[in-house]
Amino acid sequence: MSAAPAYDAAERAAREGYGKLVAFLAARCGDVDAAEDALADAFTTALERWPADGVPRNPEAWLLVAARRRFVDRVRRERSADRAHDRLTDAARDAQAAFERGEMIDDERLALIFACAHPAIARELRAPLILQTILGLDAARIASAFLTSPATMSQRLVRAKRKIAAAHIPLRIPPDENLAERLDGVLDALYAAFAAGWSDPIGDDPHTHGLAFEAIWLARLVAASCPDEPETLGLLALMLHADARRDARRDATGAYVPLDDQDPTRWDAAAIDEAEALLARAVRTNRIGRFQLEAAIQSAYAVRRFGYDLDRSAIVAFYDALLARTNSPVVAINRAMALGRLHGPNAALAALDAAATDPRLATYQPYWAARADALARTGNPTAAHDAYTRALGLTVDPAIRRFLTARATREGGAPPPDNRRSTPERWRSG
Amino acid sequence: MQYLLLCYVDDEKRSYNLSGDEGRALYGSYVAYRQALQDAGVFVGSNALQAVSTATQVRVSDGKTTVLDGPYPDTKEQLGGYFLIEAPDLDSALAWAARCPAATEGTVEVRPIMPTPVSV
Question: Taking CB atoms and an 8 Å limit, are A168 and B1 in contact across chains?
Answer without folding.
Answer: yes
